[in-house]
Design a protein that fits this description.
CATH superfamily: Spore Coat Polysaccharide Biosynthesis Protein SpsA, Chain A
Helix content: 25-40%
Order of helices and strands: EHEHEHEEHEEEEEEHHEEH
Number of strands: 13
Structural class: alpha/beta
Distance between the termini: 27 Å
Strand content: 25-35%
CATH topology: Spore Coat Polysaccharide Biosynthesis Protein SpsA, Chain A
Number of domains: 1
Radius of gyration: 18 Å
Shape: globular
Oligomer: single chain
Largest sheet: 11 strands, mixed
Length: 296
Amino acid sequence: MKPTLLVLAAGMGSRYGGLKQMDGVGPHGEIIMDYSIEDAIRAGFGKVVFVIRHSFEQNFKQHINADHFGGRIAVEYVYQELDKLPAGFQVPEGREKPWGTNHAILMAKEVIHEPFAIINADDFYGRDAFMVMAQHLRSLEQSEGRYCMVGYRLENTLSENGTVSRGVCSTDAQGLLIGLTERTSIGRTPNGICYKEADGTMHPLAADTTVSMNLFGFTPDYFRESERLFVDFLREHGHELKSEYYIPWAVNSLIDEGYATMRVLQTSAQWFGVTYQEDRPMVVERLRKLHDAGEY
């Protein structure tokens, strides 16, 4: 069975301005998702599922559909909305945004029944990352609780135009994830790469620190287990207006419980993305060079 690719495309890109998933950055107007799906097809993925919002459904489907990819991969859509919650829970008054990346994953539980990878819609992950992921997912077909992720060097994931958030990975001698810590406000400083705590204190991070760029691989049991954890999350944080159910929180919980392991896969691929409007020229130039080199 071929693995599936789940694309998290429900975010409207508030920092960038507008629906950045539709921004043509390639030499012929290609959007970043075009490259991800092309790489996924070449790697042997059989289906792509897009998590979107009803508010931009028509615009999205007009651009992103099976015909757009030449019919080479099956396409489905699911919808992340604020009120899609487990039974017994309600949206607190005043909350405006959905519940984060792991909430987005749960939207696909009815349409994915095979090992799957997840990516952000507006990030370029590189062909080798999809090859490595697909190969590993094919080995997990009858497994439960044996997850994986592709790790990137921190220094290769930063923006020159502002700070970023990254999941910092800790691994054991076997390459299994011990913990995934979400660090925010990471950027280059005169003292090297640092992240800022909520209280304003700065802490250094090594340039070769392995970080997650939300390229994870799961087996279908992850829907069951992470929905169970979502109920726990809502009991504790469901009244809050801005709390988010992140993938690292769920993954850490399942590892701590002893239910799951997560192998950190190595890749030669280079990650890049448009975090800020000012990042766009760099992305355009990198993609032009890939076309010139015959990669696409």
